[in-house]
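note to self: the first set is below, dont mix up w the second
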Amino acid sequence: MERQNHSLVTEFILLGLTDSHGLQIFFFLFFSSIYTAIVLGNLIIISVVKVDLQLHSPMYLLLSNLSFIDMSLASFAIPKMISALISDYKTISYEGCMTQMFFLHLFGGSEMMLLVAMAVDRYIAICKPLHYNSIMSHRACIGLTFLSWTTGFMHTMSQMIFTVTLPFCGPNVVDSFFCDLPRVIKLACTDTYILELLVIADSGLLSLFCFIFLLISYSVILITVQQRSSSGSSKALSTLSAHITVVVLFFGRCIFIYVWPFISISIDKILSVFYTIFTPLLNPIIYTFRNKDMKKAIKKIKNKLVSPKSTF
C-alpha cells in the first residue's frame, strides 16, 4: 500500500492533554510511573505463567496473552505522549501516525475477542465443570488465542487499507495525544463520509457485540453461582463486579467514539486515558494479582530467588 502522490502532509501535530506547563510536568511524572507499573506488572504475569508449570492451564495462558496485549496497547502511544510532555516537539510523522492507528486497532480488536474467550473459559469452568477439560483443551485454548489475534488483524486491516490511500493536503492538527482513526480521517482532503460509516460499522459493532456478550456471560455465571451456593455468590459478585468494571472502562470509550461519534473533545480525552493507560494497569490487578494461584506462584518464585542468599 503506497501513499498517493498528492498527499502533501508529512506530519501531524498532536495537541496532547493540556497546554499548562505545570500540568505537563505533573502528567510526565504521573504517567511515567503508571507506564513503568504497567510494563513491570504485565511482564511479571507473563514470566510467572511461563515459569510455573502449574499455571499452564487455559485460564492462565489466556491471562498471559491479555497481559502481552495490555502492555502493547499501552506502549503504542504512551511513550510518545510522555516524551511530548517535556519537549516542544509535538508532532508525529505521517508514517508514525498510520502505525499508531494500525496497532491501536490490532491490539484493541484482539483484546476484545480475548476478553470474550476468557468469559467463555470461565462460563465452561463454572457452569459445565465436568466437561471443562474436554472442551477447553490445549488446542482449544490456542484456537481461541489465534482467533482473537486474527480478529484484531482483520479488524485493523479492514480500516487501514482505505485510510492509507486518503489524500492529506491541508489541516494536520489532531486534538488528542495519539492518532485516532475518527479524528485523522476528518483531516483528509476528500469526502470521507463512506469511510466514516465503515469505521462506525466495523469498530462500533465489534465493540458493542463483545460488550453485550460479556455482560450476558458474566450475568449467567453469577446466577449459576448464586443458585449453587449462596455463600459463594458474594465472592463471585465481588470478582465479577471487578471484571465488569474493567469491561466498562475498556469498551466504554470504544462504544462512545464509534457507536455515538458526537462526544466532546474533553470527554474523549478522558476516555482515551482510561482506555490506553488505566485499563492496562487495572487488568493485571483485577484479573491476575488478586488470584490465589497467582499469588502462590509469585511467592514460590520469590522464595527461590531469595533462598540462595539466605544460605550465606
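second set (the one i keep forgetting abt)
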Amino acid sequence: MNYSETLSYLFSRLPMFSREGAAAYKKDLTNTIALCAYLGDPHKKFPSIHIAGTNGKGSTSHMLASIFQEAGYKTGLYTSPHLTDFRERIKINGNCCSKEFVIDFTDRIKEQIELIEPSFFEITVAMAFEYFAKEKVDIAIIETGLGGRLDSTNIIQPLLSIITNIGMDHMNLLGNSIGEIATEKAGIIKPAVPVVIGETHPASLPVFLNAAYASKISFAQEKRYVHDWLFQDSFLQVTIVDKEKNEYHRYLLDLPGFYQTKNLLTVLEACEVLTEAGWKIKEEDIRKGLSSVKKSTGLLGRWDQIHSYPTVVLDVGHNVDGVKAILTQLDLCNYNQLHWIMGMVKDKEIDEVLSLLPSTARYYFTKAQIPRALDEKLLQEKAAQLGINGEAYPEVNAALNAAMEHAGQQDLILVCGSVFLVAEVDRMLFNKN
C-alpha cells in the first residue's frame, strides 16, 4: 500500500471516535497492551509526560513540547485529533512522522489489526509509541484522547502527570457530574509520580487528593497568579507572580487567546517540578518556547487568526467551558459586527452551548463532513428556539464565503463549535490577501 491507500485502510477498517462517536470508544486497555506487547513494549523505552483535562490539554502539551525543544531535548509529541494531516498526531521537534513510517508500521501490524480489531485511536497510540522509541526521543509529551483511566495512552508510566481542568464534556462516556468526570481524568495519576493540577473545582478537589495520596501533588493556581496582561500584535504578554518567591516574570505567548493564561500557570508549575527532578530547563528556554509554540510545534486552531480586514478567527472550542472562554476573548476584542459560524457534533451539550451565544451576532449554521456532525438545519432550528437566528449552509467554506460577503472591514468572523469544522476550513481562500 502507498500512503494514501494506508490511510484509507486505517480510516475505513478501524472504528474512529471522531467520526462515529461512542460506538468507536473502547473502555478497556486490553488492545493497546496487546499491540504494544507485540511491538516489544515501546512505551517503556522513553521518558514521558502525561496530560489529561477537559480543555487546554492540547495547548499545554504543545507549550511544554516547545519549551523542551528550546532546552535542547529531542521531544516527541502525541496529540489528537489532527486537523489537516493524520501525521500531525505524531511529531518529533515539530516535524510530523514520515509517510514511510506510517506505511511500514501499518503493514507490520496489519495481522494484529485483523486479529484483535482495535480502534483507530488504539492503533495511533501504538504507532506513536513505536515511533518515539525507534527515534530515541529524550522525552515524549503524551496527550490523552478523552477521559484518562481507560484512555489508550494510560499504559505509560510517566515522570509527571498533568490534569488541566475538569468540565462537562463527553458525559455519555465519562459521567454526569464534575466528580465522576474528575475520577476518570484522575485515572492517569500513578503512585509516586508527581502530578500538577491546573484548575480545581469543589467537586474535583477531593477526587484529586484521594487519587494522589501516594504522589506529590501541586496546584498551579496556588503557586502563581496572573498580575497583568496585554495583547501585543498577535502575541499575548503576561506578567506572572510567583507567590512563594515573590518574583515577577513576564512572558510573551504566540498563542493569543486570553484563556491561555490558565494553561501558562500549569506549564510553569510543570517546568518547576521537572527542573527539581533534574531536567535542565532554564528560564530563557521557557520564554523562547512560549513565544514560538506555533513555529516550533505547528499548533493550529487556538484563537487562530487567518485573515485581517475582516478579521477571521478559527477556534476549536466546542463545549460549554470552551465557548465561555471564547466569549471572554470576544469581550477583549474590538470589532463592529460579529459573524459567528457554528457547527457541532451530535453528542455535545448543544442546547447549553447555544444558550450562551450572544444575540447581537450574525449566525451561519453549518456542519463538518463526518457522520457525527449535527445537521446544519437541525442546529439552526435548535438555535431559533432560543432566539438565535441565522442561515444554514451545508459545509463550512460555503458559510465562510457568505460571511465574507456580508462582513465589513472592521468586522470579526469566528469559526468554532467543532474541531472537525475548523479542520475543513480552506485557508487557501485567503491566500491572495
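remember for set 2: Residues 304-430 form a domain with the Protein-Tyrosine Phosphatase; Chain A fold (CATH 3.90.190.20).
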